[in-house]
Amino acid sequence: MRHTTASALFILMFFAFAPQPNASETPSPKLIAVKHHGDWCGSCKKMGSVFTDLRNKFDGQPVLFVTLDLTNVSTRNQSELLASALGLKSVYNQNSGTGFILLIDPTTHKVIKKLTADQDLKMMAKEITAQIKS
Questions:
Q1: Helix (H, G, I), strand (E, B), or coil: what is residue 37?
Q2: Can you tell me whether residue 31 is helix, strand or coil?
Q3: Per the domain annotation, does 37 fall within a domain?
Q4: For the whole model, what pTM was predicted?
Q5: Domain with 121 in it: what CATH number?
Q6: Which end of the chain is more exposed for a tag (fewer CB within 10 A), N or C?
Q7: How many C-beta atoms lie closer than 10 Å to residue 103's C-beta?
Q8: Which residues pair with 113 in a beta bridge?
Q9: Is 14 helix (H, G, I), strand (E, B) or coil?
Q10: Among residues 26, 97, 93, which one has the least CA distance to residue 64?
Q11: Which of 117, 126, 131 has the alpha carbon at shortest distance from 57?
């Protein structure tokens, strides 16, 4: 019993005094990809899972993927708050509608590119890659 208690105490102390990740080490995004979505939107349906596929493809890369859901009043209100919290309120206000993805510079909050359902996954990925490499 003493051995188990001592082991548990050692483990607790190890984790209590182990170095914690430093918040300053958290990478900043080089790009923000914002999907304007509505459940009723034909272009959104045409786009299908492209946004999820892009997020998966760029997992671990400095890209922040955000969905603004404009399906109804409640989701629209939450999306407006999210855009405001991210410093993207003016981008949100200037880009009404759904069925597209905006690539935004996280420093200037300016729209770099607008991706639409007319582009396939490969073309969209190429645009994102070009932006994070520049």
A1: strand
A2: strand
A3: yes
A4: 0.80
A5: 3.40.30.10
A6: N
A7: 20
A8: 103
A9: helix
A10: 26
A11: 126
Q: Give me the pLDDT at residue 46, please.
A: 87
**Contact (CB, 8 A) for 63 and 33:** yes
- Number of structural domains (the chain) is 1
The reported pLDDT for the residue numbered 33 is 97
pLDDT digits (tens, 9 = 90+) for 19-34: 555 555 678 999 999 9
Q: Distance (Å, rounded) from C-alpha 114 to C-alpha 124?
A: 10
Residue 123's φ and ψ, nearest 5 degrees, are -65, -40
3-state DSSP assignment of residue 96: coil
Could you tell me if 103 and 131 are in contact, meaning their C-beta atoms sit under 8 angstroms apart?
yes
Q: Which domain holds residue 56?
A: 27-133
13 within some domain: no
pLDDT, tens digit, 9 for 90 and up, residues 82-132: 999 999 999 999 998 999 999 999 999 999 999 999 999 999 999 999 999
Output the six-digit token pair for 109: 């909050």
Q: Which two tokens stand for residue 119?
A: 């582009």
Report the C-alpha gap between 114 and 125 in whole angstroms: 13
